[in-house]
Amino acid sequence: MTSQEIRQKFLDYFKSKDHLIVPSAPIVLKDDPTLMFSNSGMTQFKDFFLGYKTPTAPRIADTQKCLRVSGKHNDLDDVGRDTYHHTMFEMLGNWSFGDYFKKEAIAFAWELLVDVYGIPKDNLYVTIFEGDASENLDRDQDAYDFWKSHISEDRIINGNKKDNFWEMGESGPCGPCSEIHIDLRTPEEKAAVPGITLVNQDHPQVVEVWNLVFMEFNRKADKSLEKLPAQHVDTGMGFERLCMALQGKSSNYDTDVFTPLISKVEELSGKKYTGILEDEKDIAIRVVVDHIRAVSFAIADGQLPSNGGAGYVIRRILRRGISYAYRFLGMKEPFLFELVTVLQDQMGKFFPELEKQGKLVSEVIKSEEESFLKTIENGLIRVEKLIQQTIADDLKVLPSEEVFELYDTYGFPDDLTRIIAEEKGLTIDEAGFKAEMEKQKQRSKSDSAQKVYDWVVLEEKPETFVGYDQTESETYITRYRKVENKDGEFYQVVLSSSPFYPEGGGQVGDKGMLENAAESFEVLETKKENGLIISLINGLPKDAGAVFYAKVNASDRKNSQANHSVTHLLHEALRDVLGTHVEQKGSYVGPDYLRFDFSHFNKMTEEELALIEEKVNHKIKESIALQEFRSIPIKEALEKGAMALFGEKYGDSVRMIQFGSSKELCGGTHVKNTSEIGHFKITSEGSAAAGIRRIEAISGDKSEEYFKNLEQQIIELSQLLKSKDVVRSIEKLIEENASLKSEVDALKKEKAKGEIGDWKNAYEQKGNKQLLVKKTSLDAGSVKDIVFQLKREIPTSVTIILSDADGKPMITVGVSDDLAADYQAGAIVKDLAKEIQGGGGGNPGFATAGGKNLDGLENAYQKALHI
């Protein structure tokens, strides 16, 4: 049975049991402040479990893309070193939202595994929650009783809280769970050691394949448990492990989920995969084929590699794969990008985003490979210098600070530093390096540390967002909670009627005021979490239940919505001018400016940018009225021609924004008429990543300010130049400057000729060489020309020139070719540069160094006399 057939059988089975089959949510979470990535199948259904949203159906099933590389669920360091850990994996799942519970969930799981997939009963074990007295939780007797009707009681195992009480995180939905484990060992191995003794013991052939979670509780911030409004079922079956079991393999990597990728790596690298766990080459191949899946899906879902947040995690995964391939497969050129087409062939049918975004994914990965391979090459030079210095200092251990700097500042893998050091008979200061890593983690934690308390619920009432229609409203607080961070103590509030737009869709959250006759509080930010619009205020009202007046900062809102509306017009204009391959890949919409990232593989020309501006401004001048479809079936919206963005999760009903021919699915706030935008001006265009261009622009008030500033600059230039024809006056200045520069260059050459004559006669015989040490104020170019001439004309010579041109210290060293065996210009200049607090380098015959300490030139001069 192929992996595609296994996946389809699962979906078909649960469809036959009246489950709605839904597509996977994006692997990257954009509107959930508690998670970067979907790390389990239930992530997209969190709001259903918490009662914040009504489920689209009482029974649902799907296969969900998951990523476990950060936070509590982090499998990254295990990947490649065993047969079953992965960064990206598929979670096959079925859910019941207040419909069926333990009995049916257990029956479905057993029927599918045994009757549909044909797994022998004797290969299966199940676990149930044994209870926990510390939390007053009883043994899950119901699950035990239901399992008895399917499996022998001696195959039902009590499990502790760690293994059999599932929790989403530090807080949130949770409950007892029942795991299904499968024993994949040979009959001889089973006879020698009973499988029951290996369950949950990290045995590679006795593995958990399915977890049935019975959601009954909500874990609060104070660690207490409260009953959920309804009982739910949340199951997750590891697709890769299921394939291993059904295809009779002993490793996930031996299934057809991975073998096509492995074959391609073998072809490209010339290395043969043997499947040996300890073999570094095989570990590297496993790392590569695992990581290419994670990175490809993340990019396809809209998350580009970057230096912060989720983008940094994706970059780290990719660089780990590149590093392993470089060190153990000998891959010194980009090649991972060539695996994307193989992945498309394997998974494109079930995950169409791979097909749609394939070219972009390949280009981004290739660009990242090229960049990181350069980082490795440059790092190798730095490591070599560090090793040479360590040997010169007669030490055997590389200092931890320098090793950490290579890792943290330059992105050079620490394990590669370790390998190179060992080849030279050295080690790194492991304890010191770990200490530096810990310091970094603590710095990061302190920057982002935040303690969030439990909600104090004043009224169980659904909130109403009125911000599309008004910027002020009478309201009261329905719930609040305290938040402590490095800036102090604040309170998050949920309002019965909120005009504050929560951050989302690229648009910043509203700020404003919450006030009444007795009190006034500043609204510092507004975000959305688990379906709730949460505003952060700078204190707690004395009477939290009192009536307040909520006021949005009207000026910021006006400018933000103008910028948001103009991104829609910009998107349409880009597609008109550049082609329909253009798709939005990210945006920022604030009151001061907008940023728009889009797929395009070439730098835009000045003519294209001008045409884009012209088209957008034409739409603004047309005074096109907003057509808002506040709640429209998504199918109908798409039929009307609305643009839907990859990487976004849409519901059955959506909001569509239309300005004439521009139609997009969007939840942001917008102008009522394009004339309100005023004017659109592009301020910059550049590369955001491979295949991604970025436009930054302004509109409205900021555009008006831009042109006022420009006008003022022209007035000031006219006054300085004493001419109204600024352009012609500047052209004249440029011509005069070029003429004067030619005269100065001629004078420099004359002066240099004079210096050469004097310097030729100033050499002194010192040992086996003629030595010249001179101070000068000549510029670096002139000194270089003179030194090259002298080292050619003066045999057995070492020439050292110390310059203070433009108030900056510079040391130049030349060594004639006949002294190359005895003197190295690079070594001499490196030693002298210490006196001017600088550094530099070159080759054995010529080297230069600049520095910060001009006064140090005298010490360098005295030291040079004794070379």
From TrEMBL:
Its cofactor is Zn(2+). One of its GO terms (biological process) is alanyl-tRNA aminoacylation. It holds the Pfam family DHHA1. GO terms for cellular component: cytoplasm. Keywords: Aminoacyl-tRNA synthetase, ATP-binding, Coiled coil, Cytoplasm, Ligase, Metal-binding, Nucleotide-binding, Protein biosynthesis, RNA-binding, tRNA-binding, Zinc. Its EC number is 6.1.1.7. SUPFAM superfamilies: Class II aaRS and biotin synthetases, Putative anticodon-binding domain of alanyl-tRNA synthetase (AlaRS), ThrRS/AlaRS common domain, Translation proteins. It catalyses: tRNA(Ala) + L-alanine + ATP = L-alanyl-tRNA(Ala) + AMP + diphosphate. Zn(2+) binds at residues 564, 568, 666, 670. Its main location: cytoplasm. Gene3D superfamilies: 2.40.30.130, 3.10.310.40, 3.30.54.20, Bira Bifunctional Protein, Domain 2, Threonyl-trna Synthetase, Chain A, domain 2. It is found in: Cytoplasm. Residues 1-709 form the Alanyl-transfer RNA synthetases family profile domain. Binds 1 zinc ion per subunit. Residues 723-750 form a coiled coil. InterPro entries: aa-tRNA-synth_II/BPL/LPL, Ala-tRNA-lgiase_IIc, Ala-tRNA-ligase_IIc_anticod-bd, Ala-tRNA-synth_IIc_core, Ala-tRNA-synth_IIc_N, Ala-tRNA_ligase, Ala_tRNA_ligase_euk/bac, DHHA1_dom. It is an enzyme of class 6 (ligase). GO terms for molecular function: alanine-tRNA ligase activity; aminoacyl-tRNA deacylase activity; ATP binding; tRNA binding; zinc ion binding. Consists of three domains; the N-terminal catalytic domain, the editing domain and the C-terminal C-Ala domain. The editing domain removes incorrectly charged amino acids, while the C-Ala domain, along with tRNA(Ala), serves as a bridge to cooperatively bring together the editing and aminoacylation centers thus stimulating deacylation of misacylated tRNAs. Belongs to the class-II aminoacyl-tRNA synthetase family. Catalyzes the attachment of alanine to tRNA(Ala) in a two-step reaction: alanine is first activated by ATP to form Ala-AMP and then transferred to the acceptor end of tRNA(Ala). Also edits incorrectly charged Ser-tRNA(Ala) and Gly-tRNA(Ala) via its editing domain. This is Alanine--tRNA ligase. It comes from Chryseobacterium rhizosphaerae.
